[in-house]
Design brief:
Blueprint: E1 2-11, E2 14-23, E3 25-28, E4 34-37, E5 40-49, E6 59-69, E7 71-79, E8 85-88, E9 103-105, E10 107-108
Parallel strand pairs: 1-10
Antiparallel strand pairs: 1-2, 2-7, 3-4, 5-6, 5-8, 8-9
């Protein structure tokens, strides 16, 4: 699971954040051979406001559980505050070799 793009814009009194997310699932045998499998799972997504004091995690301004499927998809989340960071699978429920791509700073669009 990874997030490749995240933008937010103000719409009335809310902030609409649009994410581009990719999901895939593989099974590995004892010698490292991988077999692709369909991914169709509920995945938590958290939107946060960054901190100015150097802490890695800011205040959560939005949470949503989204059913992700194999491939690339778009997810939209509305919040009352402007988010600055998105985290997919924040509690690390899924085994992910590159969990760094589960976190992305959000671009503000005009």
């Amino acid at each position: 699971i990874c997030v490749t793009q995240a933008t937010t814009k103000q719409v009335g009194n809310t902030w609409r954040t649009t994410l581009t997310v990719s999901a895939a699932k593989n099974y590995a045998d004892g010698v490292g051979n991988e077999t692709e499998a369909p991914f169709d799972e509920p995945v938590p997504i958290t939107l946060r406001v960054g901190t100015d004091d150097g802490r890695p995690h800011g205040k959560t301004v939005g949470d949503k559980i989204v059913r992700l499927k194999t491939g690339t998809q778009t997810v939209t989340i509305d919040t009352k505050e402007m988010p600055t960071q998105v985290v997919i699978d924040p509690l690390h429920q899924y085994i992910d070799r590159t969990s760094e791509d589960n976190v992305l700073d959000i671009d503000q669009s005009p």
